[in-house]
Amino acid sequence: MPTQRTRFDAIAIDGPAASGKSTVARILAETLELTMVNSGEMYRAVTLSILQQGADPSAPDEVSRILQELELSCIIDGRASRILVGGKHPGEALRSEQVNTSVSAVAAVPEVRKLLVALQRNLLEHSDLVMEGRDIGSVVFPETPYKIYIEASESVRHRRRAAEGLNDSVGERDRLDRARKTAPLVVADGAVVIDSSEMTIDDVVEHSVGILRDLGWFSRNS
Ligand code: DC
């Protein structure tokens, strides 16, 4: 009889906006057969709900009040997790310009982080994960030895977003994400840094697999 896994492991991938971490996490999830979790989508879903209710995303009290009324859940769909609000995935609106502009203010509210971090940690009950975000190695799974931080110059990241046809103030978001008091964007203790400015996605994936090998991912006792 196959033995039941009693614990799962997480790969943490952090970095600023448009550093390439979502694409790398998605490819790693496919090749290593893990569940990919895009934690930014969760902060975006809360932000979208606040905007849809006509509330002020820069007013922490209003954000906390609406948060309590939201019915948030997270499911695993194939190789990726999906955030649901009231049982539905909010869709493309998550990446709208309005959400881009407001998400950092919402993500700075401690109650929002507390709730979403609990949802994120809960996903590790079910499978091995590759989770990408800003505080995955520092706050969500500080104990994991598998931490990668992907960065790229601001001009390169701007160009990447523009090439996707998206209007995203990546520099401003990073400044806010780095400056907030609760769980700011940092290089987590023990994270290996990759500067992807001059690299292709394939290069970054290959490099990440090499880092994970060095960190012992493939020789875990599972
Ligand atoms: O990864 P993204 O660009 O979709 O994330 C959107 C915003 O969500 C980002 O500007 C800051 C916030 N975020 C966060 O605070 N912590 C995370 N773990 C992930 C995202």
What does this structure look like?
This protein has helices at residues 21-32, 39-52, 60-69, 97-107, 110-122, 136-140, 154-163, 170-179, 201-214, and strands spanning 10-14, 35-38, 72-77, 80-85, 129-133, 147-151, 192-195. Strands 2-5-1-6-7 form a five-stranded parallel sheet. Helix content is 45%, strand content 16%. It starts with 9 loop residues before the first strand and ends in an 8-residue tail after the last helix. The mean pLDDT is 94. The protein is α/β, with parallel strands linked by helices and 222 residues long. The chain has a single domain, classed as Rossmann fold. It is globular. The protein contains nine helices and seven strands, in the order βαβααββααβαβααβα. α2 crosses α4 (97-107). 2'-deoxycytidine-5'-monophosphate binds next to α2, α4 and α8.
